Amino acid sequence: MGKLTEIRWHGRGGQGAKTASQLLAEAASAAGMYVQGFPEYGPERMGAPVLAFNRLSDGPITLHCHVTEPDVIMVLDPSLIGRSVTAGLTDHAVVIVNTGKTPGEIRGQMGVTGGKIYTVDASRIAVETIGRDIPNTPLMGALIKVTAVVPYEQFMTIMHQQLEDKFKAKPSVIQGNLEAIERAYREVRGE
Questions:
Q1: Domain limits for position 169
Q2: Residue 118: what pLDDT?
Q3: 152: CB partners within 8 A, 6+ apart
Q4: Mind listing the pLDDT tens digit for each residue in 90-114?
Q5: Radius of gyration for the alpha carbons in the chain, expressed in angstroms and rounded
Q6: What's the CATH code of the domain at 83?
Q7: Residue range 174-187: average pLDDT?
Q8: Which of 38, 53, 30 is nearest to 161 (CA)?
Q9: How many domains is the chain built from?
């Protein structure tokens, strides 16, 4: 197995954690990487906690289990902090949280000393660009900025194509999502 990046997404039903993990897997695959992207559901209802996972590698992936010590933790809903969000957090891990708070405030709220903390107000960006509080695509922009798992320009080209395939008849949705990714890429801040 080559260089492996493991990502765990924490969200609630309807926020797009599963969709984000699938879009990221498709984008990384189109960029020539080996990928896995899969969700884990509790009760399948709007607002219920949801986990989704990614593995991205430059070589074949031989693991077939949940991500227990992620390199990156994505938090779509900050109300989930304090639950299992920090499980498996290592000193080299990156945590990206959808919030208007500073990385220092989130570090204190999480009660952790290790890892790197980044924040971006993905909900605000989503409302302003897409018209709905679905923070998944803005958070992918923050992820690409912080980790560079896929080069930004290549990622944007792939996302444009994916969004066109999915929303052919809705150009405003395509443009809104691309703008959301770009804004979060620019606005993410870290500690």
A1: 4-190
A2: 98
A3: 144, 145, 185
A4: 999 999 999 999 999 999 999 888 8
A5: 15
A6: 3.40.920.10
A7: 97
A8: 30
A9: 1
